[in-house]
Design a protein that fits this description.
Layout lengths: L2 H26 L16 H4 L2 H14 L6 H13 L4 H13 L5 H16 L13 E6 L6 H14 L4 E6 L4 H14 L2 E3 L7 H15 L3 E6 L6 H19 L4 E7 L3 H15 L3 E5 L9 H9 L3 E5 L7 E3 L2 H9 L2
Parallel strand pairs: 1-4, 1-5, 2-3, 2-4, 5-6, 6-7
Antiparallel strand pairs: 7-8
Helix pairs in contact: 3-4, 4-5, 5-6, 6-13, 7-8, 9-10, 11-12
The protein binds guanosine-5'-diphosphate (2 copies) and magnesium ion.
Length: 335
């Protein structure tokens, strides 16, 4: 080898290593929001919200078709909001503010309603934070709310953005839970780390993190069991999972609480237990397609003070969308 070849070789190595470092450095903080949107998001939200839109939209239409802004008008507006699960406190605040703004006609009141709904939902951090190598997302919630399904949907979204999620089946209490997660994972094309039935969920979380490191995966998503009947056990279990992940990963990027929109105000009470125990950073509100009471989004944020980050609008893999308040309000109030 002559010296020119050596110089060229060294230069080539430097360029490749530099590019490699650049790619790795970028991957270290895979920022979900900066990556291109998958195509499924092109479907208009209004058509995916189904019954909520029909019902709230329908009753509001009848409110706004009234000519006079009399007491009956304001009462009906408040009733429509409460019926949509916006929550009594939030509904009163919203109607009070619109009334105070002294609109001249129904159309103006309608525009004010959109403004007030947007205002309640404004200014919250709805990004999915994926810092850390790997990033850690812990998913908690009552059984049947849609945790496992939502994890599959989130994994699919991450895959579409060229990230490499790995799933931890830390719901070791229900025998079928591992199988269900694996079935989804196969479909999405991601790996699952599981444990023996009845084994310690925290050890599954630990093993998943170790596997992610060994295989160079970007994001660890941990599925958990959620039973409220036994709050002490739940607390101990989630506390231990958190400790293990924090000790090992340094920090947890997100703790997502999965809530079932059809559980209404009842679900809110359960949610409070999890927010006390688990340090929830974001909410996934599922089954919005199956309820006429989509106003629960507003009640959830008002009462828990935690941002809704994703909404579930069906059982399919594409039926989980990042929550966009403006789009949501437009869809609710669309003619
Ligand atoms: P987990 O017990 O919390 O893990 O809940 P699963 O993920 O097993 O979901 C329970 C049921 O809810 C399943 O039949 C899911 O298909 C269904 N499900 C989950 N999310 C949604 C959603 O956004 N819309 C509808 N219609 N069904 C959903
Ligand atoms: P019981 O139904 O009130 O008798 O409650 P148990 O505590 O006996 O548990 C019933 C089910 O919950 C069993 O399948 C257990 O494996 C499961 N289980 C027990 N402890 C825990 C726990 O700490 N966390 C979770 N998620 N499940 C548990
Ligand atoms: Mg599950």
């Amino acid at each position: 080898m002559d010296s020119l070849t050596i110089v060229l070789l060294v230069a080539a190595i430097v360029v490749v290593a530099g590019a490699g470092y650049f790619v790795l450095a970028r991957r270290r903080t895979p920022d979900f929001e900066d990556l291109p949107e998958p195509r499924a998001d092109a479907v208009p939200l209004a058509s995916r919200l189904g019954r909520t839109r029909q019902t709230l939209g329908g009753s509001l239409r009848s409110v706004f078709s009234r000519g006079d802004l009399d007491q009956g008008f304001w009462d009906e507006m408040e009733e429509a909001l409460v019926a949509a699960d916006v929550g009594i406190a939030a509904s009163q605040i919203i109607v009070g503010r619109i009334r105070d703004s002294d609109p001249e006609h129904a159309e103006e009141a309608r525009n004010r309603l959109a403004v007030e709904l947007r205002r309640i939902l404004a200014g919250r951090d709805r990004d999915l934070h994926l810092s850390g190598t790997p990033a850690v997302v812990l998913v908690v919630g009552v059984n049947g709310t849609g945790k496992t399904t939502s994890i599959a949907k989130i994994a699919a979204r991450l895959r579409e953005r060229d990230l490499t999620p790995i799933l931890g089946a830390a719901d070791t209490f229900r025998a079928a839970a591992d199988t269900q997660l694996r079935m989804w994972a196969d479909r999405v094309g991601v790996e699952v780390v599981g444990g023996q039935s009845g084994s310690d969920p925290a050890s599954v979380a630990f093993d998943t993190l170790a596997a992610a490191r060994a295989r160079g995966r970007d994001v660890v998503v941990i599925d958990t069991a959620g039973r409220l009947q036994n709050k002490k056990n739940l607390m101990a279990e989630l506390g231990k999972i958190r400790r293990v992940l924090e000790r090992d990963a340094g920090r947890i990027g997100e703790v997502l609480l999965v809530l079932d929109a059809t559980a209404g105000q009842n679900g809110l009470a359960q949610a409070r237990v999890f927010t006390e125990i688990a340090g929830v950073t974001g909410i996934v509100l599922t089954k919005l397609d199956g309820t006429a009471r989509g106003g629960i989004v507003i009640a959830v944020e008002q009462e828990l003070g935690i941002p809704v980050k994703f909404i579930g609008v069906g059982e399919g893999i594409d039926d989980l969308i990042p929550f966009d308040p403006d789009e949501f309000v437009d869809a609710l109030l669309a003619e």
